[in-house]
Amino acid sequence: MASETFMKIRAWLGVAVLTLFMPTILFISVLMYLYDNFVRRKVCKDIAGEVAVVTGAAGGLGKCIAVELAAKGCHVAICDINFDLAVTTAKEIADKYGVKAKGYKVDVTRYDEIVELNEQLTNDIGTATILVNNAGLLLHSDQLNPTVQEIEAMVKVNYLSHFWTNRVFLENMKQARRGHIVAISSIAGLLTLPQSEPYCSAKTAVRTLMRCLRAELRLNRITGIHTTTVFPSFLKTHARVKTFVQESGYADMYPMIEGEEVAQRIVRGMQRGEVEIALPGFFMILYRFITVLPARVQDWLFFSPSIVNLTSKRAMASLKEQ
Asked: What residue stretch is flagged as signal peptide (predicted)?
């Protein structure tokens, strides 16, 4: 009993010491932030000639990212469930940028198809050392009452697919001793959105998955493989989401972002070696602030009647009309 009591006291003393040194830690953190954003950012690694896999790349944000990678000299695999559109996108990119680009029909929730994709891509273009996990489902057919099948599909596409693609393509990177994995999460992976339990849960899981991956790489002293997790806000690349954001009132709080702008920021951040990117950037600061508050305070701030009246009720009304 005495031993357990001592262990508890020791743990709380550790927290007290950490709290004592928190001002110093915050000061060092600010210096690191300034260095990363105003000094280190000038140094961008060259990705020309690398082979990149982009999931969900036939259209939307995925296409914008594939275009931006091609503009930097990357060969790209356009992976999507819509094969015809993937082929068209690949041809557009190849013709415009003079890189190798090919469309592949892939269900990213199926591990065997990811393995087959890796084999085909290696034979067609080369070994992939850049992976962008972009494929995702945004809304259900009935957002307020989704079916079991829709919930399962959202969790598989938005989270499980990252697990499978990381597992397959990470082996390429380990053999090449270099690589970069980019995961497209969402602001919903940082801040909670009402009536979006499957979406928020899956996007939060992606954030945790990437943190675990970073820890694994660090513990195994693998220095040539890097990761970037992206938390974008609402984009203009999806017609139904665009309508929802405008009618709900979220667009009145902050304007929606162009897909091209987000893609440029993602690729630039990847080249700089940034670990996490929020778009717009103040969301990351807001998230850091929120996490130090007690849960009851967080709920009071973000789910108070005034906030609910401002956005959530309008959002629910918009969903009922769709």
From this structure: none
Q: How many DSSP H helices and E strands does the chain contain?
A: 15, 7
Residue 110's domain comprises 48-321
Q: Would residue 96 count as lying in a domain?
A: yes
| pLDDT (0 to 100) of residue 133 | 98
Who has greater pLDDT, 318 or 106? 106
The structure tokens listed for 121 are 């891509």
Distance CA 231, CA 53 (A): 19
Give strand pairing partners of 101: 76
Task: Judge contact between 23 and 106, C-beta under 8 A.
Answer: no
Does a structural domain hold residue 32? no
Measured CA angle at 249 (ends 243, 251), to 5 deg: 70
* pLDDT for the residue 18: 84
What mean pLDDT comes out for the span 131-155?
Answer: 87
Nearest Cα neighbor of 241 from 230, 252, 233 is 233
Instruction: Report whether 290 contacts 300 (CB < 8 A).
Output: no
Strands 179-184 and 225-232: parallel
Q: Quote the pTM value.
A: 0.87
Is 3 a domain residue?
no
| Cβ contact 111:133 at 8 Å | no
Residue with tokens 């050392």: 129
